[in-house]
Amino acid sequence: MTAPAPAIQAIEKTDSAINVLWTDGHRSQYHHIWLRHQCECRECGTPMDGLRNVWILDIPEKPEIDELTSGPDGVRITWADDHHQSVYTTQWLRKHCYSPQSRAARRHEVTYWDTRIQHDIPVFEFSAAQQSAEIHLRVLETVRDYGFCQLENLDTRLQGIQNAAHLFGPVRVTHFGISEITEKSAQYNVGDSGRALHPHMDETYRISSVGITVLQMVTPSESGGHSTLVDGFNAVRRLRDTSPDAFDLLSTVPVTFCRHHAGESLDGKRRMLVSRTPMIRLDENGEVMGVRINERHISPLDVEGSLVEPFYRAIRDLLKITYDPALRIEIPLQAGQGLVFDNQRVLHGRTAFVRGKRPRHARTCTVNTEEFHSTLRLRQMDLDLPESNQTLYPGM
Ligand SMILES: [Fe+2]
Ligand SMILES: [Zn+2]
Q1: How far apart are CA 213 and CA 343, in angstroms?
Q2: Of 50, 155, 298, 339, which alpha carbon lies 20 to 30 A from 73's?
Q3: Do 237 and 345 form a contact (C-beta atoms < 8 A)?
């Protein structure tokens, strides 16, 4: 349950802001313009419900406060220019406080991992996650923190992967649809062959790349064909430590990723998909928000000539890390087991396999990151957890 919000101990008004001292010693500053814009009275509406009726150009650039009072419920303001009345609850003010400490506390910290997690892989029973809100929340939090988890006892029919995906959100239908990965005679993807696959991310050629990927094993190969995973956030953290120049280049120089589909995809349509973005995305604090790595999709670089050789040195530095077995885990999925991973954080691959009597058969489908975050936040809101206000890394 949410702890009761601290009360306001003292409040003062300056020309441009109100300063609040809380009973727990925390100090907050709220600018007049910020408060006036975020008024959530019946007339102003709220940004949550889509019925917002506040127009930034209609409020003064420097709104002035006529009257300021505070009580146990919160802060009441009468604005000077139009005598509009706003009320802000203590809980709301504290939740949205933008002091450096509050902003840092809201930022979600990921848990980095490497090959040592091999013997401690986060595993959940699918039916338990489906039936219990608490276990469902733990599954969602695990994917938020680690970028992956394993699921047990999925139905190996098509419905099984759909149900697993629905733990995270609605299935995103791309040209792959729900992709059947089998050893095909006509091969359009390296996934259709028995070759080993280096750790990579899927569909990097999409401007809006795929987020959460669910992999369901239907029929494992008799030998090999194990799934591999690498924490991309840990890999680029290591790159930042060992080759800061390479990290800077890969987080600023855009790469073009492309893919032509001649009509072999689910809907039979041709596609020429091209995205252009740096492989590492940072936020305003320099924190990694998303990673996009797939050397098979990199098309001719379209950058200033002086950057070409440094770029190739940088990407070699990165690939040496992402292909390093010390960062990789290997999971020999059995029929009915599944993996869920964040395709904008975690790289996946596969060990080689030889064709046996029963052909290997796996399925994948995806859920958009915003739908995953929405499912997570709703679960947290329903359980009344303050984490629903966390700043989550959005991917690419
Ligand atoms: Fe893949
Ligand atoms: Zn209002």
Answers
A1: 6
A2: 50
A3: no
Question: Could you tell me which residues come within 8 angstroms of residue 291 by beta carbon, excluding any fewer than 6 positions away?
Answer: 201, 232, 233, 235, 236, 279, 280, 281, 344, 345, 347, 396
The reply to whether domains 8-106 and 115-389 share a CATH topology is no
Cα 53 to averaged position of ligand 2 atoms, centre (Å): 9
- Ligand 1 centroid distance, CA of 189 (Å): 9
C-alpha of residue 203 to centroid of ligand 1, in Å: 8
Domain ranges in the chain are 8-106, 115-389
Q: Which helix (H) or strand (E) holds 362?
A: strand 361-367
Q: Which ligand is nearest to the CA of 55?
A: 2
> Would you say domain 115-389 falls under CATH 3.60.130.10?
yes
Closest ligand relative to 35 C-alpha: 2
CATH, range 8-106: 3.30.2020.30
Instruction: Tell me the two tokens of residue 304.
Output: 């200033």
User: Counting ligands in written order, which one lies closest to the CA of residue 229?
Assistant: 1
Q: Whole-structure pTM over 0.90, yes or no? A: yes
Ligand with an atom nearest the CA of residue 181: 1
